[in-house]
Specification:
The chain is low in regular secondary structure. The protein contains 3 helices and 6 strands, in the order ββαββαββα. The structure holds zinc ion (3 copies).
């Protein structure tokens, strides 16, 4: 039977309703300020942060640390698992820039970022 994981903390549950019925201790608004959110990607051997490319073997360990490329500011939030599949090339969903790793893609600012030219980093499409 497949498991459902929280994108914020890696808690697993046997159904979506039981997962999202409980509050999340790593919710972005603060511990217990919101509910678990369904991670919509597939189960992987290694999870990659969509903001910085940091890898970890579980969502729980990945989201346990703060992200130095978090959109809210360096260290202002936690790593978040990339929900797409592993690729040879990652493409920015805003401008189409390609890069071979999420880490190198998100290392540069995006000229077509919704917040303004260069106001944020490239974001890998799924
Ligand atoms: Zn959670
Ligand atoms: Zn990160
Ligand atoms: Zn871009």
């Amino acid at each position: 039977m497949s498991k459902f994981y929280c994108e914020y903390c890696g808690t697993s549950a046997s159904s979506v309703s039981s997962l999202t019925g409980n509050s999340c201790h790593r919710h972005p608004d603060g511990p217990g300020r919101g509910r678990h959110k369904l991670y919509e990607g597939s189960e992987k051997n290694q999870y990659t942060c969509k903001y910085c490319g940091t890898k970890s073997s579980t969502i729980s360990s990945l989201t346990g640390n703060s992200c130095y490329r978090h959109p809210g500011g360096s260290g202002k939030g936690r790593h978040a698992p990339y929900e797409g599949s592993e690729k040879n090339q990652y493409t920015c969903k805003y401008c189409g820039t390609n890069s071979s790793t999420i880490s190198s893609l998100t290392g540069n600012s995006c000229p077509r970022h919704p917040g303004g030219n260069g106001k944020g980093r490239h974001v890998p499409s799924l």
